[in-house]
Specification:
By secondary structure, the protein is mostly beta strands. It has 1 helix and 25 strands.
Length: about 375
């Protein structure tokens, strides 16, 4: 039995013993209205939408920038959570903010997820700071996950910050805006899974677009099983969008001798015009307590392909903590690019430790 197979079996057994989340510190589904949340400078509402997605991600209530039409131009507004006491964490535990989002933004408009921290000595809240980059353009319902571990054991507020510059001559008319549902702050030790048969797990999308489930467009079925992840499961991806599908942190094993580490996955893709994708990696720096910039693991993926297997070597990152991303980039919408296509579908992601051997008859998978 080869070492790669032993490592995978051990990994899968360890993962099967874990639950999705061990402790939920805060949750909100807006099924009973705005609750203890506050709105700064209007715009935000809670209820059942009749515009935008026309339905919430779960149940009948969610929060949105105007439930029945387009947001007004030239407005800045925060949807602000009540004060939340975050729990402490130990060892490999992480704190995560997860939520579902649907958005459609026009012209110069965008949004940010923000955080403010209570200073008990001065009895004041810190200035709002952004968690990750801006959200813009369009996306169907998709899950986002932001790490809050640096704020463990502190009192915080979370804000969804809507900014609209619509109204200037350089910007298009406004659109239907940002819809938020099923917010949770959870404490857990993240686990790596790659078949998506049980949903998102600890994966997330930073700017939407990505969805998990059974496709009805593109390949029309996953490589194996019933569920996989893809850039919009029921149609074409939207134009002018960048979005990463991001794995949880993974502690890669050490390797010895001729052993190698590989990222293995199956992919189906159809890209048009100027659009393409990359597989990327970021590495945790334990001394500085920061992630490195994202770097590409090989060249871009373009044009089309049926289901096919890809293997990327991770040996240079052995014994490090990393995250993997599948980075979708679309420039569709410019006059030089063709209309968008059905995008990128991923299934059966694995990290394999093995000593490579050469075979050439392909009699076994």
């Amino acid at each position: 039995m080869n070492k790669g197979f032993i490592f995978l079996v051990t990994l899968l057994l360890a993962l099967s013993a874990r639950t999705a989340y061990s402790e939920v510190a805060f949750s909100e589904d807006f099924e009973f209205g705005i609750g203890d949340w506050t709105v700064e400078q209007g715009v935000w509402e809670a209820g059942t939408p009749t515009a935008g997605p026309s339905e919430c991600q779960g149940g009948s209530g969610c929060a949105a920038t105007v439930l029945d039409g387009n947001y007004p131009g030239d407005t800045d507004s925060r949807l602000i959570s009540p004060a939340i006491q975050l729990p402490s964490i130990t060892g490999a535990e992480k704190l995560s903010l997860s939520f579902w989002q649907w958005f459609s933004y026009a012209g110069c408009d965008s949004t940010f997820v923000q955080i403010s921290v209570w200073d008990p000595d001065a009895s004041i809240w810190s200035d709002w700071s952004n968690i990750d980059g801006s959200i813009f353009n369009t996306s169907p319902w998709s899950r986002r996950l932001d790490e809050l571990s640096p704020f463990a054991d502190k009192i915080v507020r979370i804000a969804f910050y809507h900014t609209a510059r619509t109204g200037s001559t350089a910007c298009n008319p406004s659109s239907t805006g940002w819809y938020i549902d099923d917010i949770a702050i959870s404490k857990d030790t993240p686990t790596f899974t790659g078949d998506f048969e049980n949903g998102w797990g600890h994966w997330s999308a930073d700017r939407g677009v990505w969805q998990v489930g059974a496709p009805t467009a593109g390949p029309s079925e996953c490589y194996s099983g019933f569920d996989c992840v893809g850039t919009v499961l029921d149609g074409n991806y939207p134009g002018n969008t960048d979005s990463r599908l991001i794995s949880p942190p993974v502690q890669l094993p050490a390797i010895v001798g001729e052993e190698k580490l590989y990222l293995s996955f199956w992919q189906w893709f159809s890209y048009a015009g100027c659009d393409s994708t990359f597989v990327q990696i970021t590495v945790w720096d334990p001394d500085a307590s920061i992630w490195s910039d994202w770097s590409n693991l090989d060249g871009s993926i373009v044009n089309t392909s049926p289901w096919s297997r890809r293997l990327d070597e991770l040996s240079p990152f052995a014994d490090k903590i990393v995250r993997i991303a599948f980075y979708h980039t679309a420039r569709t919408g410019s006059t030089a690019c063709n209309p968008s296509s059905t995008g990128w579908y991923i299934d059966d992601i694995e990290i394999i430790r093995d000593t490579p051997t050469f075979t050439g008859d392909f009699e076994t998978a």
